[in-house]
Amino acid sequence: MKEQIIKKNTTVNNNNNNNKITTIIITSYVNSHPETDLLEQVVLSLNHIELLNQGNIIIVFDGYKISKDLNTWKTKKGLITTEQAERYEQYYLAVKKLYENRRQQIQLLKLPKYSGFAFGVRTALLKCKTKYAMIVQHDRIFTDTFKHTNKLIDLIEKYNHIKYIGFPSIKSQTHHILLTRKYRLNDFSNKCKIKIIDNGNINNNNNNNNTTKNKKKKNDADDVVVIDDDDGGITSSTTMIKQQGHELYLQPCIFWYDSNHLCHVERYLQIYAPYLKLFNENVLNWLGNDFNVNKLKLKNGDFIEDKFGQFQRNMLYKLKDKQNEKEYIELFQTFGSYLIYDIDHMKDNVRITTNSNRNAPIKRNPCEFSNKELNLPKIFVQHLRGRQYDRNSKNNMNKSVFGHV
């Protein structure tokens, strides 16, 4: 299967995209409450992403359960003490006052009981009046500018299987490497990649055509030479790759990260009824009795990545060896999850020297390369770790991001 190419001069009209995205922020009790600065940083960071500052915002305040033991609480499970509940209620009132002048844009949705992240998202999606939503956690901020949201919307319109586009964090930035090295899904990763041609210009120079173990693959679409090494190393005496320009593409993702992501509202809601709405009959027949897709069904209190994401990853990994390519890609498209990879290539991506004996090439493990040499995508999301957030810490990065002192 050829790489899917979306050229810059796509005919999809994006003039009406400005009001198509609602940002959904899920918040719950953290120790810094009733202070609002954690949430303020998140809301302020929306200005980094094209279209978000123009759209509506729904802030979901999850409910809670009161612990019978004053010394026992589990905030991830919604179990908090009476004193913590009082501070959380004060936090809600403080947020309400904070955004009182933006009531036309910011809606506060207070849940009557504990629902958890997954069902907090679902509740907001059902209230959403736009076609698209940006799902944001209350302690994850956008830290870099992204000006191509319109292009993402065009892609979702073009490909009706896309449900989820995640923005890389330090955790998901190397997802493509995991696919290749841990899960052995390199071919799948390359075939399902969706490229956006946006002023990209990649030049290549291969210094030695007489490689033995390395196989050169020429992609006519973007003029990239890909070097494969069966042992996972890079042979230093054989290759120098020069890359220039800006590359933007959707990287196939086999794990539904809870971190900030753009979604198509109607398609996203399908994950809450996997057997009835997510999987079509053809995929179910192919799966047979190997997997019970009802185990994907989210319940009250669940995080999407902890249950749905892990089942998704396990399913796609375990079926890779028996894959019929067409059926396997259809299974991936059932989930329809991607990461947006935004890469500014170095002029000289890899400068590789050789030793004196050309018959004994030096090998460098990819772990030895810097991030720039590996051309890792930009990180757009930073985790402020709300449960451990200390607004008084001198070493806290959180306050430095937007000048909170």
Could you characterize what this model shows?
This protein has 405 residues and is α/β, with parallel strands linked by helices. It is 27% helix and 20% strand. The chain has a domain at 20-171 and 381-401: Spore Coat Polysaccharide Biosynthesis Protein SpsA, Chain A. It is built from 13 helices and 19 strands. The strands form five sheets. Strands 1, 2, 3, 6, 7, 9, 10, 11, 15, 16 and 17 form an eleven-stranded mixed sheet that branches. It has a two-stranded parallel sheet with strand order 4-5. Strands 8-19 form a two-stranded antiparallel ribbon. Strand 12 and strand 13 form a beta hairpin. The N and C termini lie far apart (53 Å). The model is unreliable at 1-15, 200-243, 347-356, 358-362 and 394-405 (pLDDT under 50).
Features:
Spore Coat Polysaccharide Biosynthesis Protein SpsA, Chain A, disordered C terminus, alpha/beta, disordered N terminus, 11-stranded mixed β-sheet
The count of strands amounts to 19
Q: Give the overall shape, derived from the CA principal axes.
A: globular
Which range best describes the helical content: under 10%, 10-25%, 25-40%, 40-55%, 55-70% or over 70%? 25-40%
According to CATH, the fold-level topology of the domain at 20-171 and 381-401 is Spore Coat Polysaccharide Biosynthesis Protein SpsA, Chain A
Task: Describe, in short, the structure shown.
This protein is of the alpha/beta class. It has helices spanning 37-45, 82-98, 116-127, 149-158, 175-181, 186-191, 265-268, 274-278, 281-287, 304-318, 325-335, 371-374, 398-401; strands spanning 4-6, 21-27, 57-61, 65-66, 79-80, 106-110, 132-137, 140-142, 164-166, 194-196, 200-201, 215-219, 224-228, 234-235, 244-252, 261-264, 337-345, 363-364, 381-383.
